[in-house]
Design brief:
The chain has 162 residues and is mostly helical. The protein is built from 6 helices and 2 strands.
Length: 162
């Protein structure tokens, strides 16, 4: 196992920092939304992705500050991308579900992202792509398994969830 200060770990951290910077750039997001034909800001896309990856979620399960979730869910609901439905287990609570329009929008967003990714890795072999995907998922799972919540307590995420 590599030590915390090994050159490999430092290189990985630098690469992740570069990826984060590149993916968070406003122009990139705007271009991707233009290609997708979906007029959503980054927060709305992130929330829509979360809802799309789940059957339905309570607003508190969306992993964003409550006031931001409320506003973003309201915008997505007003645009017809999500709907609120009663929670089957607790009628006092509501869950957020994707509508057909939301499903179409997230499919367009993902296709625009995949198109850009395909261009970036067009010279990679299928085996290299499989290795990268496997290692990325493993790294995310490890990050989630070793994450520390706001109170400083370690928390675990379900295996295979990224």
């Amino acid at each position: 196992m590599a030590s915390c200060s090994s050159p490999e770990v430092i290189d990985i951290e630098r690469a992740l920092t570069r990826i984060t910077y590149l993916s968070a750039r406003a122009r990139r997001h705007e271009r991707q939304m233009a290609v997708a034909g979906v007029p959503l800001d980054r927060a709305a896309v992130a929330l829509l992705r979360q809802v799309a990856d789940s059957e339905s979620l309570r607003p508190g399960e969306l992993g964003v500050e409550a006031s931001h979730v409320t506003r973003t869910v309201q915008r997505l609901q007003k645009s017809g991308y999500v709907t609120r439905v009663p929670d089957r287990d607790d009628r006092r609570a509501q869950r957020v579900e994707l509508t057909d329009a939301g499903g179409e929008a997230i499919a367009k967003v993902r296709e625009a992202g995949v198109r850009g990714m395909r261009m970036a890795v067009s010279d990679w072999s299928p085996e290299e792509l499989r290795q990268l995907a496997t290692l990325f998922h493993r790294m995310v799972d490890e990050f989630l398994a070793h994450a520390v919540d706001e109170e400083g307590e370690p928390r675990s995420a379900p295996a295979g969830k990224a």
